[in-house]
Design goal:
With 365 residues, the protein is an alpha+beta fold. The chain has two domains: 261 residues, 3-Layer(aba) Sandwich (D-Maltodextrin-Binding Protein, domain 2), CATH 3.40.190.10; 65 residues, no CATH class. It contains ten helices and twelve strands. A five-stranded antiparallel β-sheet has the order 1-6-7-9-8. The radius of gyration is 23 Å and the shape is globular.
Length: 365
């Protein structure tokens, strides 16, 4: 049996086929912005100082620190513990680069993908992150994960297999679109197989004890339903990777919970937390005149944003006969007077977007 096992293992560890693409990242459309060996992302300060705290607000409450379970309401940012093989960037709409993976190999049709993992990757408890953990994570998300994960994995992924300690292969099912799938599986969170096997934790259960991850932050403290504090892991394995240079700078991240949007704004005015993004045109136009603003303790700003523009829209169910006629859809759109609404109700703040790819090179011109 030992001889047979060795014979089986040999072809599985062979290099990729000669016509396969080997790359440091992958893009759904076009070319990658960053070449192999890039020093850091363009939008970061690689020399940014480390330290301090940033605090934000969370809505309502929480009773779990497990963001991948259907049970309970998970704490804000609780996925911060976990990493994936690939990492997307904020200045490209469709690209991913190696994080836990150092490189990847795939054929032109993207019917499968092999990830070559960084052997130095570690979980926060110091244990190695291996291909076995990636396969375990795929299987547990497929069998017990959120419906959004299960729907993709069950229908589109045929298998995941470890080809070695730091080499893992995903094979996709026949007859499904595969262009996005290397990035889809490359973006799955990675959990520690050893943690789940030794702790007795059930992946489906809600829990306030987060699972072991490999990310840059670990849990510092929680006040259930009220506050979460995350602490930067000084021993984080990936802090010097080019994809991470200039990022994860705060020593701690604090989340303060509020019952509703208005009380959260009052909390900001009182200095209970230090950073918020504004989603109310009324508050943006009329609310930022409180004492802390007048004293220069708070700053209102619109920083540059290279991400895809978000928007609100009508989404038609084309399975309904009435919406299959494009004239009906156009008529519904014409019934909404954007210009009047923007001027009268929204303080003239909004702009109409003209594409799902607004604010990116993919927008049709």
């Amino acid at each position: 049996m030992a001889i047979a096992a060795a014979l089986i293992a040999v072809p599985m560890s062979l290099p990729a086929a000669a016509d396969d693409i080997t790359a440091h990242g992958i893009s759904t459309f076009g070319e990658l912005k960053y070449d192999a060996g890039f020093p850091h992302l363009d939008y970061v300060n690689p020399d940014a100082p480390k330290g301090g705290e940033i605090s934000v607000w969370g809505f309502g409450s929480f009773d779990s620190m497990h963001p991948y379970s259907t049970k309970g309401r998970s704490g804000q940012l609780s996925s911060i513990f976990f990493e994936s093989l690939l990492e997307s960037t904020a200045d490209e709409p469709d690209s991913s680069y190696g994080l836990v993976a150092e490189s990847m190999e795939y054929p032109e049709d993207r019917s499968e993908v092999i990830f070559n993992m960084r052997p130095e990757a570690r979980f926060s408890d110091g244990t190695p992150l291996t291909a076995a953990d990636v396969v375990f994570s795929y299987e547990i998300l497929r069998d017990k994960g959120l419906p959004s994960f299960r729907a993709v994995i069950e229908k589109q992924v045929a298998s995941a297999e470890a080809l070695g300690p730091h080499r893992v292969k995903f094979t996709f099912k026949d007859g499904v679109p595969t262009r996005d799938l290397p990035q889809t599986v490359g973006g799955l969170p990675i959990f520690s197989k050893t943690y789940y096997e030794t702790s007795g934790a059930d992946f489906e259960d809600s829990t306030l004890t987060p699972a072991i991850g490999s990310g840059p932050y670990i849990l510092d403290s929680i006040d259930v339903g009220q506050q979460i504090v995350y602490r930067r892991n000084p021993d984080y394995w990936g802090k010097d990777l080019p994809i991470n240079k200039g990022r994860h700078n705060f020593d701690s991240i604090r989340v303060e919970y509020f019952a509703d949007y208005n009380s959260a704004f009052e909390g900001f005015k009182a200095g209970t937390y230090t950073f918020r993004t504004e989603a109310s045109s009324k508050i943006w136009a009329t609310g930022y005149d409180f004492p802390a603003m007048e004293k220069g303790w708070a700053v209102k700003d619109t920083p540059p944003d290279g991400t895809l523009a978000s928007g609100q829209s009508f989404v038609f169910n084309l399975r309904r006969d009435r919406f299959q006629d494009i004239r009906v859809r156009k008529a519904v759109g014409m019934m909404f007077n954007f210009e009047w609404s923007n001027k009268t109700l929204f303080y003239g703040i909004y702009e109409r977007i003209e594409s799902f790819w607004e604010n990116s090179y993919l927008k049709a011109s």
